[in-house]
Amino acid sequence: MFEGLSKRLGDVFDKLRGRGALSEADVDAALREVRTALLEADVALPVVRQFIDGVRPKAIGADVIRSVTPGQMVVKIVNDHLVEMLGGTVADLDLNAIPPVVILMVGLQGSGKTTSSAKIGYRLSQGPQGMAAEFGGSFSVKRKVMMASLDTRRPAAQQQLKILGEQTGVPTLPIVPLEMPLAITRRALETARREGFDVLILDTAGRLSIDEELMKEVADISALSKPQETLLVADAMTGQDAVNVAKAFNDRLTVTGIVLTRVDGDARGGAALSMRAVTGRPVKLIGVGEKFDALEPFHPDRIASRILG
Ligand code: GDP
């Protein structure tokens, strides 16, 4: 684990062997390596600074226990701080509300919103049966789920969710041509209520970048649908931009959790830390593939080792 960083810190500390406690100079030399590791993992710069400022006092003066090298000691302190900043433990979806409980999916275009909507819909509608042991909490109850696409911008978007619904066996709100997003929201809520759905997943229109008109649209949808969960979907490849994206959405909506997609790719996942730091909200789920069962709970310790490399 952490071979990259461990090795680098080993090199830094080689000349310092034998000291009892970590001095300020040792720690600063080590933290320069940590800073590089975080930047390489695509953690946004302001978040890197915040991280270093947070971990520095924990490392200075720390006693190096006999069985480890100073490098290993710093890696442990850094890793523990990173896991803590990522939320510590797995964060469950909060579906404790009067049904239909609304999950609002927001994010940039192409981030994986529609795919993630279907993945969550599928997982919640399956209940504990056939469930990977990893899932628990809100996923251990079988729920009646409906999905609705509010994306009237991209012509094929509503159709895409409908097809995913057919593949996953999760019902979707019938499409009414030319209906506007707020009207669809209203109809989705009424239908879900009338037909006794437990959960309603609303997939919103994406944006290429932060766009005021679309932001207002999603804020209006949020005000109308009063979501219990507002999940910000972001691609794990998002680099320095993660902070801007997270801030823009979080300023307009109460983001309650993050879904990090494409964790199956090469990305080191620094976006998880950036977005968590900016919103203060946990990453709740990760997408690990294109198929609808490629969804997993987020384990802070696993991403921490990936970020530290
Ligand atoms: P949207 O515009 O935000 O709704 O994005 P889509 O859900 O249409 O996803 C865009 C593309 O990313 C599609 O080709 C998806 O199959 C793909 N995708 C979404 N999530 C994942 C993931 O976790 N892993 C991989 N490899 N591909 C994903």
Question: Can you describe this structure?
Answer:
Helix 1 crosses helix 4 and helix 2 (24-40) packs antiparallel against helix 3. This protein has a seven-stranded mixed β-sheet, sandwiched between helices. It has eleven helices and seven strands. The chain is an alpha/beta fold. Guanosine-5'-diphosphate (GDP) binds at residues 107, 109-115, 206, 261-262, 264-265, 287-290, 294. It is a peripheral membrane protein. This is Signal recognition particle protein.
What class, by secondary structure content? alpha/beta
Strand content: 5-15%
| Count of β-strands | 7
* Strand adjacency order, main sheet: 2-3-1-4-5-6-7
Radius of gyration: 22 Å
Bound molecules: guanosine-5'-diphosphate
Number of helices: 11
Calculate the terminal CA-CA distance, rounded to whole Å: 8 Å
Give the biggest sheet: 7 strands, mixed
Give the low-confidence spans.
none
What's the mean pLDDT score?
A: 90
Shape: elongated
Helix content: 40-55%
N-to-C order of helices and strands? HHHHEHEHHEHEHEHEEH
What are the SSEs and their pairings?
Blueprint: H1 3-13, H2 24-40, H3 45-59, H4 70-85, E1 101-107, H5 113-126, E2 145-149, H6 157-168, H7 181-194, E3 199-203, H8 212-225, E4 229-235, H9 242-252, E5 257-261, H10 270-279, E6 283-287, E7 295-297, H11 300-308
Parallel strand pairs: 1-3, 1-4, 2-3, 4-5, 5-6
Antiparallel strand pairs: 6-7
Helix pairs in contact: 1-2, 1-4, 2-3, 3-4, 4-11, 5-6, 7-8, 9-10
Bound molecules: guanosine-5'-diphosphate (GDP).
Guanosine-5'-diphosphate binds next to helix 5.
Membrane topology: Peripheral membrane protein
Keywords: Cytoplasm, GTP-binding, Hydrolase, Nucleotide-binding, Ribonucleoprotein, RNA-binding, Signal recognition particle
Domain SRP54-type proteins GTP-binding: 282-295
